[in-house]
Amino acid sequence: MSDGPHRSLPMGRRWKKLAECLDNASFSTEDLCERRDSAILGEFKREVSDALMAGLRDILCSSDQGLLFGPSGDEIENLRMHTSGSSVGNLLLDWAINAVNSGASGEAALAAACNETANEIFDRHGRGMAEHYQRETGAKRASHFQVRMRSVQDGRSMDSLVNRIVQGGRAMVIRAPTRHTGLEDGVGF
User: Fold this and answer.
1) Within a 10 A sphere around the Cβ of 158, how many other Cβ atoms?
2) What is d(CA 170, CA 104) in angstroms, rounded to the nearest whole number?
3) What is the mean pLDDT of the chain?
4) Cβ-based neighbour number of residue 85 at 10 Å
5) How far apart are CA 88 and CA 121, in angstroms?
6) Domain boundaries of the chain, sorted by first residue
7) Which long-range CB contacts under 8 A does 115-121 form with residues at least 24 apart?
8) pTM (whole model) above 0.90
9) 120 phi and psi, to 5 degrees?
């Protein structure tokens, strides 16, 4: 007997735990969002170096030239050497260049780049999880999984995650998702 399709999912433990919770209807949307945020923060911490984030913050947020001469895509492009071939780091820089070219500046440009990067990370992993569940389970269970995944894909629910990434430092600490162990913490009616 199998322990569930999330066990054979070829992803990190945070993504496996998210898949397990998505598959289980007893987890609320808030619980799923906590797991999603934990998994995305883990990707950022693992693949985006502190030097890259500091450089991006310096270019976008602390421009001494004011709004007249905002940061350019070329300045951001020079940070590629800090990505060390990381796909998430390169994606973050691409979205930062896109934000600057679209007219955003300051912390808004950094937040837009982090938001788009987080959405892309979730989309990539979500497609992998959905494909795995489609292959390993029945159509009904895979459909339920995809519906639950779409419920946590709402961009507004990622605002607190993006704020944590933009703030960096202690805000980036990955906290364990809330565990409901009490009798009154069960499934809501």
Assistant:
1) 21
2) 26
3) 80
4) 8
5) 8
6) 11-47+117-171, 50-106
7) 115/155, 115/158, 115/162, 117/44, 117/88, 117/91, 117/92, 118/40, 118/44, 118/158, 118/161, 118/162, 118/165, 119/155, 119/158, 120/91, 120/95, 121/40, 121/43, 121/88, 121/91
8) no
9) -65, -40
